[in-house]
Amino acid sequence: MQRYLAYAGVLLLAVTMLVLAAFWPVAWWGVAVFGALALLGTWDLLQTRSTLRRNYPVLAHFRYGLESVGPEIRQYFIEGDTAEVPFSRQQRSLVYQRAKGVMDVVPFGSQQDVYGVDYEWINHSMAPKHVDSHDFRVVIGAASAQPYSASVFNISAMSFGALSASAVRALNEGARRGGFYHDTGEGSISPYHREKGGDLVWEIGSGYFGCRDGQGRFSEERFVENACSPQVKMIELKLSQGAKPGHGGVLPAAKVSAEIAATRGVSMGHDCVSPATHSAFSTPIGLLQFIARLRELSGGKPTGFKLAIGHPWEWFGIAKAMHETGLLPDFIVVDGAEGGTGAAPAEFIDHVGVPMHEALLLVHNTLVGLNLRDRVRVGAAGKIISAFDIARAMAMGADWCNAGRGFMFALGCIQSQSCHNDRCPTGVATQDPARWRHLDVADKSVRVQQFHDNTLKALRDMLCAAGLEHPQQLGPEHILRRVSPIEVRSLASLYRFLEPGELLDRVPSHAVFRDFWAEARSDAFAPPRRVSALCDTKDR
């Protein structure tokens, strides 16, 4: 019966305080406190929804309370500085220091286990370079009417609705100050994106928010209204995202505010649905025709798509469609499965989609094998925080990198993982004005700009130490990885890199190309016959 001791104790204390209150008026405070706990314990015994509360009246609530602050306790008191869950204290501290413009040097040696498996580094040169500027850029859409010179480090797609008004303002002002771009996310272009005038990449998802008609279909007229804004520098069609590829999403009607409804072009009082698939096309060729139409309607602005790689034959179908039709996107952004700034089902977060390194390499290799790599720029997104993260991604084939959570840290995010419940403690990922109004836009925009600036300075210094002058010179031979306690290999030797044009005259020995390239179709996303046949062997 020990489990009832807490309940019995508060009952006894409530009665005792009631007796004392007859002689000592201040005891009425005890009556109120212990009486309330006694009532709570009584309700625990009478209710039937929770067995734990019936068996441990009063005491069970202490367990719930401790459980509710468990993430904070682990983060602040238990986790090591290098434990990435999902970002380590060391990674977050680096962003905070660079965003605030304070000293970011590290004393007394590395905390990394340099003899541990998967430890990575870049080799330095005996002939280091000197480069004055750290404003590294890449031209996207060189053959289009309005090419864009982009920074190699930019703000990844995060929608207004997922982020607060103040967060959007601060990100865009930081982008304007630093000369880099701000991806709108699929929630379209809000007034807060326009307010500060920073460069925008307009992301269009399957809900066609900001360019949809009353039935949720793509509207050319609405698209032109937004796409022709001078602030919009590029158009990005989202096929899938790292956090929940192939899932789509629903913003419940209760959360569709007047501002969100106006921004997305939806009506209040109804769920805002982002379907899992696009209605404007259904085949790889149709996708490329749609991309070409968006480029034309926007007046020749660089137009491309973002995707998280899933079934390889589907990506191969898109690549074959490029080769067969000559219709090319100006860019492709590869989103890794480790990415994601908002909320997603646990299974999607943990077990759906290809991680960024392998996905990026597959896209890069395919374009190289078709002799298209010099005509299509490739961006990479997925847990990019430091200059080394940028260098590694570019060494594996990226032309530039995007970051979402890194810039959220620059805004003051503390990784409370409250993005989904509207209770973000720092006002970054919430629509509660009582929270986001306390986010100082003027101060945080400076931090966004400084995080970007100081990260690129670190990238410059790293490149110079390696004897390089621009991140485009990075290749897989520059990055080393420990694969066992006694073996080190470069990424060039760990991964298979295709030769230019290799896919045009033969099927490479690379396993994924050998298994799926020949049967991939440019006219359908359907699986190869062999894959379907394996499914048909099951007893239905």
Automatic annotation (TrEMBL):
<keyword id="KW-0472">Membrane</keyword>
<dbReference type="InterPro" id="IPR013785">
    <property type="entry name" value="Aldolase_TIM"/>
</dbReference>
<protein>
    <submittedName>
        <fullName>FMN-binding glutamate synthase family protein</fullName>
    </submittedName>
</protein>
<dbReference type="InterPro" id="IPR024188">
    <property type="entry name" value="GltB"/>
</dbReference>
<dbReference type="InterPro" id="IPR002932">
    <property type="entry name" value="Glu_synthdom"/>
</dbReference>
<feature type="domain" description="Glutamate synthase">
    <location>
        <begin position="150"/>
        <end position="468"/>
    </location>
</feature>
<dbReference type="Pfam" id="PF01645">
    <property type="entry name" value="Glu_synthase"/>
</dbReference>
<feature type="transmembrane region" description="Helical">
    <location>
        <begin position="5"/>
        <end position="23"/>
    </location>
</feature>
<dbReference type="InterPro" id="IPR027283">
    <property type="entry name" value="YerD"/>
</dbReference>
<keyword id="KW-0812">Transmembrane</keyword>
<comment type="similarity">
    <text>Belongs to the glutamate synthase family.</text>
</comment>
<keyword id="KW-1133">Transmembrane helix</keyword>
